[in-house]
Amino acid sequence: MIYLQLFISYLKIGFFGFGGGYAMLSLIQNEVVVQNAWMTNAEFTDIVAISQMTPGPIAINSATYVGYTVAGFWGSVVATVSVCLPALTLMILITKFFLFLKDNRYVKGLIAGMRPVVIGMIGAAALLLMFPSSKEGASFIDGWSWALFIAAMIAAYRKVNPILLIVLSAAIGIIIYYVPAL
Amino acid sequence: MRRYWELFTSFFKIGLFTFGGGYAMIAIIQREVITHRKWIEEQEFLDLLTLAQSAPGPISLNTAVFVGYKMYGYRGALTSLVGVALPSFVIMLLIAAFFTQVRHNPIMDAAFKGIRPVVVALMFAPIIGFTKGMRGYTIAIAAAISLIIWYVGISPVYILFAGGVVGVLLAALRGKEVKR
What we know:
Chain A has 7 helices and no strands. Chain A has 182 residues and is an all-alpha fold.
């Protein structure tokens, strides 16, 4: 039964998707393309590209898209709910433990030891976007990119609303890259 | 009912503007959850990010569950999770149903050429806030780790695990105070 297959596949993806985001890609690809043959590699590449244009984690984006393509509206609901379930249950457990034990010496030590790693991970993700391994979908393409980046750094430092920055940058992108091509 | 609605709308906003992977939303969450609503404190937020990193699943979902559960228990967790996941669900559903060709749309393409460098800036900006009040050597360790992950390409999961082990060992050795 297709709903059950979607449920199991996306439960797996939600459960084993450590490291977030693009670390999950190969896992999703394995389930969707290799194991179940719900789509071809080319279609999967399309989903990745669409996910980069839509908000939210790629796990949810792919769940909704694949679920809909394979089994219609209810397919997308089943896949999306099942990819969220592990995060919901595991994170509630972790939060409970943390709120209960946060003054424990060892828990404090554990978190303190992981803290610089988490900051390093955020830095590494930003560096990867700045200097990608391939030109495809690169974040920085010309002088305008760097100008926008520097302006956004200053604005963010001055506590300008990040949502406003995203909306403005989309408008500026259209003015710079689309309007002259008309 | 009103408090659930606040939780829902806050995380709906966060879900709607999280482009470019989980880290891009850190700046948005900081504004919404810490500055605006004062649901959690800046220092607690870094702890929360650490927990969200060490659990499976997307960071945005994990963060939503943590804040929701801390505020109003199970119902809170469910409320914020639905809030953060709903925008991507609806948008992807519409694309899958009607606009499969969206990725070849030149206007969208131009808009994202503008958004991408700004998302990178939104990832760097919170780091400056996190390192405030940290000791120099901790900042140096964080910088070194980010270079290692970026340049060598080691899976961050191992380094996160190693960091946790070192932290617990230090706590056991020192007795009480731990590095910050």
